[in-house]
Amino acid sequence: MLHPALRYVIGARYRNRLRAILRRLKTPVGIIGGLFILAIGSAMVFGASVGPPAPVADKKAMLASFLAFLLILGVLGGIGQRGLLFAKADLDLVFPGPFSRRQLLAYYFIPHHIAAAMLALMYVVMLGGRSMPSPFLCFVGFVLCQMTSAHLSAFAAELSMLLADKIYARLRKTTIVIAVVVTIVGLLAIVMSVGGGTEGLGSRLRIAWDNPWLQVLLYPAVAAGDLAASRGIADALIPLSGLLLCTAGSFWLVALLNIDFLESSYAATTKFRSRMDKAKRGLHDTKVKTSARGPRGRLFTGAGAVLWMNLLIMRRQLRAILGGVIVISVMLAMFGRQSGSPTTILTVLTMVPLWMALPVGFRMPREQLLEIRQLPLKPVAVVGALLAVPTLVPFCMQVLGCTGLVLAGAVAPTTALAALPAFLVVGTTLTSVEALFLLTQAEPNHLNFLQTMLRFLTQMVSIAPGVATLIVAGVMTRDKAQAVLLATAVQAISAAVLLALLGWRFHRKELVLHES
Amino acid sequence: MDTPPPTLQVEGLVKRFGDFTAVDDLHFACTPGEILGLVGPNGAGKTTTMRCITGILQPTAGRILVAGTSLAVNPMPAKRATAFIPDTPTPFDMLTVLEHLRFTALAYGVSQAKGRFDDLLEEFELTEKRDELASGLSRGMRQKLAIACAFLREPELILFDEPLTGLDPKAIRMMRASIRQRADAGAAIIISSHLLDLVEKQCDRVLVLHRGRTLAEGTMDEIRATARSDGGSLEEAFFAITEPDGEVD
Questions:
Q1: What is the ipTM of this complex?
Q2: What are the helix (H) ranges across A82-231?
Q3: B76·A3 Cβ contact <8 A
Q4: For chain A, which terminus, N or C, has the lower number of CB atoms within 10 Å?
Q5: pLDDT confidence of B249, banded at 50, 70, 90?
Q6: Is the pLDDT of residue A315 over 90?
Q7: Cβ–Cβ under 8 Å, residues A61 and A209
Q8: Nearest-angstrom CA–CA distance, B55 and A38
Q9: Residue A79 pLDDT > 90, yes or no?
Q10: Which residues pair with A187 in a beta bridge?
Q11: Helix (H) or strand (E) holding A280
Q12: What is the 3-state secondary structure (H, E, C) of A236-257?
């Protein structure tokens, strides 16, 4: 079914990607990043094998719920995109080529299925799959369910291509609302269940799966769970046959519609890729109102103009920032509920700058940084202006989080007040280290995972002086607030050194542009 | 002398996107060995027309025949006969230069392709880059790679959308010679460009489009006659045709 040329492209892509990873692993950055990933992977494998094993029925319910979640989002995503998403290169090199519709469909699905197999392998090796009665059947069930999900997603996309524009516009809005509700309910279910009651998440989900409607509507996920939990061939026969039927049947549905999807997929891919490019540059809507009033006050003159520009970029993506704030709040609530310890909650809150990737400051494209560097301004002022927004926005969130914790009675007001300067100092340290990496690295962040890992590791090391002081002072003084203040002072010196280093790097060293 | 049958024949082509008509009742043909220039201001429908001819966009109405085969009825032979080089080619990031040529050879069933790889790499000054991933190529190199892939399979119809974008002067000279060479070898070539100087020097006939419609068609002399600018450049004729009242968009 797959044309030899398309098979060649898929093979060459994976082969070259693997080679690129292996090449990177030979560099110092690659070695450290690789070791770090290995450590995380080992910790996950080890973490999954310690503690009392959960009942198989609970693990089955959890697996089925996870797969059902992916299945629902896959179908909703298909409706929302109204066309199949290909790579940008496919539009130029594959779409005009002499390939039949079925060959193109096979070409579209194979990378999805390979990704499904990788995800299933991760689940089996690192997460709960290893302790299932048959890890192999668990892997097979996971992959087949994900394959069905990809087929159904494409089928939903094809169906939405058939709809008239006006009907589709309405359907899309409804789909987005349902997707948001499903995601929030899913996250809330996790938050409410983790450490929140006498019964664990698995047993709660098991009860939910007793609903016959859910069993029918989300059959592929149920069957994958049954397959993972089966103890022999006889047990596996029915769910395996069911899943195979679902996988083949869903592909047959996609092939049956016989829609010429090239035009819709061309439009959907172009739109999606351009949206992704804009998002990387921090743009979400290019039609904005320009305020008739420019910046006012002395703060926005000189290097202040750079600060004003950063604030403007931030204001134009409030929606995305709010979305990020909600996700971070849910994650914080999860940690808080699970640990119940104010120290843990405050520690997690300290790390907020790591999670907020705002496209301002040193995260701006290098071309823009080069222009800013050439401005006739004091280097210290320019660096300060560039760091202000990415440091202060997470700080505002930390202040809000602390206020919430104080109001909920989880943290004493004095502890919260003592934590605020620490947040600011740690935030400045983390942002400065990231800026140094962004100025030094040869390729953009998203292209090199190992590079990102190394940066994360360095950020952790950069706050070591503060952490060490906190531990020593905590043991010696037995006064938490005093220990925090002392640690903040030590970390502030470390941050000042980093700022000086950043200023020197930004103004004195060459800034190489990334290949676009 | 008998005129050879056209390699490309476009009859009553209409392309609408919702309420917007991008191409409106277009008729034109391109014969073997001919270089046809498509000119028009932004939004004239040049790229949409080209994408319809490649089979990526479905015409709302009308008929496209490539090498005597209807694109709608029998797309495979028509697609095999056509090569399209977009204005900003996007190669596969994770494929090397040589692997792009191999992919093209496999996709279009080019026989004896291996022997031609080295010639094309040399012709387009890509020999040193043969084992480099496309993600590391400059814009000009990507353009050359796209053209090398197109030339590898010796298509009957070649569509260029802004072929000289990103090329250095030496490459521009080589590209112009290469286009002429392909036309002399019998390929029908369509060049869409805003570079009126290129079109004037390179093309045998010109089609002037504006808001999806044909405003003028013919040889350079015929275009000048339509514009009533005897002896003037294509640029003068172009503005006389597209902006008769001297208005500027």
A1: 0.87
A2: 88-93, 101-126, 135-162, 165-193, 201-208, 212-217, 219-229
A3: no
A4: C
A5: very low
A6: no
A7: yes
A8: 47
A9: no
A10: none
A11: helix A262-280
A12: HHHHHHHHHHHHHHHHHHHHHH
Residues A245-257: tens digit of each pLDDT: 999 999 999 988 8
pLDDT tens-place string over residues A433-489: 988 888 877 655 555 677 777 888 888 999 999 989 988 888 888 777 788 888 999
* Integer Cα distance of B123 and B119 in angstroms: 6
Which of A5, A95, A515 shows the shortest C-beta gap to B103? Answer: A5
Distance of alpha carbon A377 from alpha carbon A396, whole angstroms? 28
State CA A94 to chain mean position distance.
Answer: 30
Q: Could you read off the pLDDT of B60-117 as tens digits, one per residue?
A: 999 999 998 999 999 999 999 999 999 888 999 889 999 999 999 999 988 887 888 9
The residue assigned the tokens 């060959």 is A103
- DSSP category for residue B96: B
- Domain spans of chain B, in order of start: 8-242
Per the CB < 8 Å rule, is A16 touching B94?
yes
Of the candidates A95, A98, A92, the one whose C-alpha atom is nearest the C-alpha of residue A263 is A95
Q: Is the pLDDT of residue A344 over 70?
A: yes
Query: Which pLDDT score is estimated for A129?
Result: 66
Cβ neighbours of residue B134 under 8 Å, at least 6 residues apart?
A89, B91, B92, B93, B94, B95, B96, B97, B100, B142, B145
Q: What is the rounded average pLDDT of the residues A351-366?
A: 80
Q: List CB contacts (< 8 A) between A4 and chain B.
A: 106
- A3 contacts in chain B (CB < 8 Å): 106-107
| CA–CA–CA angle B114, B119, B122 (5° rounding) | 130
Chain A positions touching B149 (Cβ under 8 A) are 93
Confidence of residue A400 (pLDDT cuts 50, 70, 90): confident
Spatial CB neighbours of B243, under 8 Å, sequence gap ≥ 6:
B249
Q: Is B143 helix (H, G, I), strand (E, B) or coil?
A: helix
pLDDT for the residue B9: 95
Output Rg (C-alpha) for chain B, integer angstroms: 18
Q: Is B74 on the interface with A (CB under 8 A)?
A: no
DSSP class of residue B133 equals B
Q: Which residue of chain A has the CA closest to B150?
A: A93
What element of type H or E holds B61? strand B61-66
Instruction: Say which amino acid occupies B71.
Output: L
Structure tokens at A490: 């030590």
Whether residues A100 and B96 touch (CB distance < 8 A) is answered with no
- Predicted pLDDT at B53: 95
Interface test with A, best of B53, B64, B95, B152 (most A CBs within 10 A): B95
Which of B82, B91, B102 has its CB closest to that of A8? B102
Q: Which of B31, B32, B24 is nearest to B52 (CA)?
A: B24
Q: Is A19 at the interface with chain B, CB within 8 A?
A: no
Question: How far is C-alpha A273 from the geometric centre of its chain's CA atoms?
Answer: 18
